[in-house]
Specification:
Helix content: 25-40%
Radius of gyration: 23 Å
Structural class: alpha+beta
Number of helices: 9
Length: 276
């Protein structure tokens, strides 16, 4: 059994067994000398909980250096009130400036998305990004072209897709992508049989992206329209973005907001609470 992915610096280990007790799948065990050992590697999800909980930074997983991880005690975290205000003030944006998002900020956000939760720590997500107006214009043009090529007498596309496409081709309102300067498509590996929580993984990833984006003054809007296209004309989406009929995915538009909301909305009474 390969246990090389799990290493303990014996000079630092406090023999506290916090890692052993925290291991959800009992992959670790305490040895006679008090140090942890990878007893059942097949159970290990590479979640790095052991690396994170070790107070001495003695544990390495997959070659990760615990010294590079941030100490949670020193992290600047928002207050409960700040998080609540963030949720109250969040809006879906449908009006974007013709301006690109800072590439460095976008790269930092996408890298951070490697930390989103996935079922069984599958980490089977792919983040396909159209980061700027140039790439989005090319995507829009290819999308419209694919619709026109598909819309023949023998195979007419649904009116809900055809009409917005005609408007956009004629220079009218962009009802598909709302004039956004960027698009992020998050897809799950359909060939991975271990991914049984793909819908939840995708929803969580989009939510994390939305929160990170808006914390950086980048507006977002979920692009459910592409899911409709996958259902109605799957070959069109595969041709333009590589997303197949069977590929689980969600998409989100992003860009610099063109409007600013002066206050929150009032939806507290929309929460249906069933106390038991």
């Amino acid at each position: 059994m390969n246990t090389e992915f799990f290493k303990v610096d014996k000079s630092k280990c406090l023999k506290c067994s916090l890692c052993v007790r925290d291991c959800a799948f009992k992959a670790l065990k305490r040895t006679d000398d008090g140090r942890p050992v990878m007893a059942v590697p097949a159970r290990c999800m590479r979640c790095q909980h052991c690396l994170a909980i070790c107070p001495a930074g003695a544990i390495s997983v997959d070659g990760k250096d615990p010294a590079e991880a941030k100490a949670t005690a020193s992290l600047e975290l928002p207050s409960a009130a700040a998080v609540e205000n963030y949720i109250l003030s969040r809006r879906s944006m449908r009006h974007f400036k013709k301006e690109n998002v800072d590439r460095a900020v976008l790269e930092r956000i996408l890298k951070t998305l490697g930390n989103v939760p996935t079922g069984c720590n599958a980490r089977a997500l792919t983040f396909t990004c159209y980061p700027d107006m140039e790439s989005m214009d090319a995507f829009r043009a290819g999308f419209i072209k694919a619709i026109e090529e598909h819309n023949t007498p023998g195979k007419l596309i649904p009116r809900s897709i055809a009409v917005p496409a005609i408007r956009m081709r004629k220079g009218g309102e962009d009802m598909f992508f709302r004039g956004a300067s960027g698009l992020l498509i998050i897809s799950s590996d359909e060939t991975n049989s271990d991914v049984v929580t793909a819908p939840q993984d995708l929803a969580a990833a989009c939510t994390y992206f939305e929160m990170l984006a808006q914390a950086n003054s980048i507006a977002t809007c979920w692009c459910g329209f592409l899911n409709i296209v996958q259902k109605e004309i799957p070959e069109l989406l595969e041709k333009t973005s590589g997303i197949r009929r069977t590929t689980p995915f969600n998409a989100m538009l992003f860009g610099i907001p063109a409007v600013k909301y002066a206050r929150t909305v009032l939806r507290g009474d929309y929460a249906k609470i069933d106390w038991r």
